[in-house]
Amino acid sequence: MHTCEGKCERVSIYRPNLEVSTARIVFGLFFVYLPALIYPIILVSAGLVYIHLRLMGAQGVKGLRDFLPAWKSHRYRYKAQIVQKNRPRLAFWSRTRWFWMLNCTAYCPFSVALLEWHAYLVKMVENWWCPFEHSKKHRYAEAAIDYSYWHNELEINLLHPADRENPIWNQDAEPAAPPRAMPTAKAVGE
Fold first, then answer.
1. In terms of domains, do 149 and 78 share one?
2. Of 134-143, 149-158, 180-189, which gets the smallest average pLDDT?
3. Last residue of a domain, one of 108, 126, 144
4. Is 53 among the domain residues?
5. Where is pLDDT greater, at 177 or 119?
6. What's the pLDDT band for 176 if we cut at 50, 70, 90?
7. Count of C-beta atoms within a 10 Å radius of residue 28
8. pLDDT band for position 185 (50/70/90)?
9. Percentage helix, strand, coil, to 5, in the chain?
10. pLDDT tens digits along 5-43
11. Are residues 146 and 102 located together in one domain of the fold?
């Protein structure tokens, strides 16, 4: 399943990387793996936010497993794992199946899943406690809730009407209509 069909903002890395020295690449690898040292802290942080949401009464909150790819969905198994053969001797690990299996089947997918899960939980907390519009709030739709903390009989009228009727934190609100096409110059002049 490819989701980047048509329009995607892309970062240019392949061609610039061709000009990068081997020493710089090896040095740069440390900056990919050093963050793993803080993953236990992120895991505890996400767990605490998860517990907070459950204590607030939240039901149906996704767990970390919901963000991890299914093991069977990975393209390569150990015996079929591709490796790079034309790498410098200093990068001996890039010629081993174990490196690519651990890196591409475990470390990277777990890293993405952990950070996405944590972001999902924090967005849900913000939707619950702070249902107030800002320029990035549309990105919080993945963590939609039934109603916010403010949608009770006493405080609901304190909310701005747009916040009161936002479908991200009000399940009874009408979804926003898709933007209408702007009239063409001919239609305006007629």
1. no
2. 180-189
3. 126
4. yes
5. 119
6. low
7. 11
8. very low
9. 55, 0, 45
10. 767 888 999 899 889 988 888 888 889 989 999 999 999
11. no
Domain of 51? Answer: 38-126
| Residue 47, domain member (yes or no) | yes
Element (H, E) at 120: helix 108-129
The reply to whether 13 falls in a domain is no
Q: What is the token pair recorded at 11? A: 């970062």
Give the length of the chain.
Answer: 190
Burial class (CB in 10 A: 0-12, 13-18, 19+), 166: buried
> What does the alpha-carbon distance between residue 29 and residue 107 come to, in Å, rounded to a whole number?
13
Total domains in the chain come to 2
Question: Does 121 map to a domain?
Answer: yes
β-strand partners of 147: 170
The pTM of the full predicted model, rounded to 2 decimals, is 0.82
Q: Cβ of 122: how many Cβ atoms within 10 Å? A: 15
Q: Are residues 87 and 148 in the same domain?
A: no
Q: Which long-range contacts (CB under 8 A, 24 or more apart) does 69-78 make?
A: 69/109, 69/113, 74/104, 74/105, 74/109, 76/100, 76/101, 76/104, 76/105
